[in-house]
Amino acid sequence: MNGVTRPSARASRVHGQVHVIGAGLLGASIGLGLRQRGVDVTVEDVSPTTALLAVDYGAGRLRTAEDATPALVVVATPPDVTADVIERALAAFPGAVVTDVASVKLAPFEALTRRGVDLTNYVGSHPMAGRERGGAIMARADLFAARPWIVCRDEETPANALALVEAVALELGAMPLEMTPEEHDQAVGLVSHLPQVVASLLAGRLLPAGERAVGLAGQGLRDTTRIAGSDPELWVQILGANRAPVVAELEALQTDLAAFTAALSDPDAPGARRRIADLLAAGARGVARIPGKHGTSERFATITVLIDDRPGQLGALLTELGDLGINMEDLRLEHSPGAQIGFAEIAVLPEVAERAVADLGERGWRTL
């Protein structure tokens, strides 16, 4: 990211200037992606340093008094000020379409409605993308590629306003999906907000643990706590704004935990082992519902290859897979604590897994 706009191979779907308010991860990533498609993007932030940093990274330019009204204003601010910024943007740019990318949709909509704000030109949206760390320095032009981008409309939303917001999503490689604010908040409460709480609480259990115990941590713990490093202040805002759906999910999870704990406390009690098995099996069925590659439900087989922890080994393995005509659907790496060896977990189609193991073995690779 060096601030240079690459020439567009085709005309952009987005016509007119786009003004981004909030130059953090999402705002800067939107700016970077649109600029690469030749769109004129201006940025602002309550922090001048943050705005200038986004400019330096190529997310846009600062708005000047000579600039005309933008076609679209994107509000990418923290949830607790989103409604205020949307209201100001609608007043400052009455001819523009205004959208926001906050992770909660009902709270700002209801706040603006209570204030009597004319929301004709407002279209709420939410790209289902992000990273554990925020800020313009972490922005990526491809952050939204192949990710859902929720667009919330109502019967009064003009077709041109909806089309413009969806054009931005498509231009950035995302997949627009229409939902009501209520549907959106219920859905993200389950698939985004609840996992954040669970990951954070689980990671918190590591604090009183001894160093030897933590040193045994493997990929399972890393997988289930990966998002626990997210910004606590931001999540306090998100969870507070979407508290009803999240509390309902937490209460349901609490019921399951209580049932599991009771059964495990006395596994010899009648039906206890079945209760444990049923809860674990429900988890397996739930995992099977998570969309896989390209949003499909197709499941893959995993082969684990031992690789020496030295430069070039992973590249050599991937080259071997290519030579063998084996398509890698996913890749996960794990290092063995205290040993110069790593494990590459490679997802492949089930029908090629046996051949992959045999062919790699013939070429000297060790598999588990």
From TrEMBL:
Gene3D superfamilies attached to this UniProt entry: 6-phosphogluconate dehydrogenase C-terminal like domain (1.10.3660.10), NAD(P)-binding Rossmann-like Domain (3.40.50.720)
Entry annotated with the keyword Transport: no
Coiled-coil segments: none
Pathway named in the protein's UniProt entry: Amino-acid biosynthesis; L-tyrosine biosynthesis; (4-hydroxyphenyl)pyruvate from prephenate (NAD(+) route): step 1/1
Signal sequence region: none
Family per similarity comment: Belongs to the prephenate/arogenate dehydrogenase family.
Name of the protein in question: Prephenate dehydrogenase
Organism listed in the record: Leucobacter weissii
